[in-house]
Design brief:
The structure holds 2 protein chains of 2 kinds. By secondary structure, chain A is mainly alpha-helical. Chain A contains 10 helices and no strands. The chains are: A mainly alpha, B mainly alpha.
Chain lengths: 240, 247
Amino acid sequence: MYKNSNSFITLMSGSKIFLQQVRALLAKDLKTEWRTREIFTSMFVFAVLVVVVFNFAIGADTELIRQVASGVIWIALSFASVLGFQRTGQMESEEDSLQGILLALHDRSALFIAKMLAQMLYLLIVVLCILPLCGVWFRIDFMTCIGELCATFTLGMLGLSIIGTFFGMIALRTRACEVMLPMLFLPVSIPLTIAAVQATTQLIDGKSLRDIADYLVLIGIFDIVFFFLVIIVFDYIVEE
Amino acid sequence: MQKWWSIMFFLMIFPLIYLCINRVFHAIVMYITMNVAIMLVFIYAPTEKMQGIVQKIFYFHVSSAITMFFAFFLVCVASIMYLWKNSDWWDAIALSAAEIGVVFCTLVLITGPLWARPIWGTWWSWDPTLTLTLVLWLIYVAYLMLRIETYDPKRARFAAVLGIIGFVDVPLIRWSVEKWRTLHPKPVLIQEGGTTGLTSAMLLTFLVCLGAFLLLFFYLLRERISVAQSRHALEVLRHDIDEIGVG
C-alpha cells in the first residue's frame, strides 16, 4: 500500500522531482489544450450562454441587473467549470492514460496539483474574457475595482478548481458522470459561491477591499482547508 | 457551561445503550420511551404562552435536528475510521448513518415549515439554519447517489471521502450563510451563561423526546447495519460462486 504520509512530506520539502513532475504534467495538459482549445471553448461558450439566458430572465431593469450581475457571473462560471472538470477527467480515462501517469509518478498528488493548476488557468482566462462582455451588457464599470476583483476571482477559482478537479476524478468512475459531478460539486461549493457573490456585489457597489475582507478570508480558508484535505485523501481514490 | 456538559453526557448514553443491550431489549426500551414522550408532549408539558399549541412541534423538530447532526457526525467518524482501518464494519456504519440521517433531515425540513408558517407567517425563509439544513440534505443525498451510481469496487472509499468533505463543509456553510442573512430564533435550549429558555417541565419533556429519537436512530442503525452486512456477505458468496464456475 502506498504510504499516504509520503505525499505530505514530499510536498512540504518541495522536492525537486515532485515539482518537475507537476511541471511536466501541467505542460502536457496545456499543450494538449493549446492544440485543441477544446476545454476553453466549451467553458467560455457555455458561460456566455448562461449569462445571455439569465439576461432574458431578469428583464430590462438596469438597476435590477446591476444588483444581480455578480450572482449571474458566478453562476455562469461555476456551471461552466463543471464542463471543464468533466472534460479533463475524461481526457485521462481515454486509452487508460491515467494508469500510465499513475505508474510514472513518484507521488500521486502531483497529478492532482497539475490538473488543478491547469483548470484554474483555464477558468481565469474564461473570467478575463467574460468580464468585459458582462461589463458591456450589464453596463458595469469593472475597471474601478479591477485589483480587488482579481483577488476575489483568483481565490474563488482556486477553490472551485480544488474541489472540482477532485470530484471530477471521482465522478469519472460512476455510471452517470455528467449527473454525479454537478451533484457533488455544487452543494459543497456553496460557501465559496455565497462569499464570492457577496464580495463581488459589494465591489461593484463601490466598497473597498477592507469591506470585503471577511469574505476573502472565508474563501481563503475554504481553499486552504480543502486543498490539504484533498491532498490527504487523494491517494485513497486513485490507489488500485 | 454545566448545561452543555449535562447534554453531552446525555448524548453519550445512547452509543453505550447501543453497544450494551440486545436488539429486543432495545426495541422494548424504545417503545416505552416513545409512548412516554408522546404523553409528556401532549399532556404534561405546559402550553407556551405566546405560540400556543403550535409550539409542541418544537419537541419533534429540534429532536430530529439534533439526531440528524449526530448521524452526520457519525458518518464522518465512521468514514475516517474506514479509510484508516479499511474494515467493512465502519463502511456499513457510515452508509447506514447517512441513510438514516437523510431521513431525519427530511423530517426537519418538513416540521420546520409547519412550525414557521403560523409563527413567522411564511413557509420558508432563507435564514442560515434552514439553508444549512437544506444544503446538508443535498450533500448527503449526493452521498447516497454516489454509492448507488459507482460501479468501481472502490465505491466505499469514494463515499468515505465525501462523508469527510461533507462534514468539514458544515462550519464553512454555517459561516457563509450567517454572514448572508439571519432570522432563526436564537437557540432556546441553552442561552448565554448556561441558562435555558424552557421551563423545567418543558426541558424534561424535550429530553425524553430527544431520548426517544436517539433510541429510534440507534435501533434503525442496528437494523440497517445488519442489512448492509448481510448484503456484503451475499456479494462475497456470489463472487466466490462465479470464480468456482469459471475455474
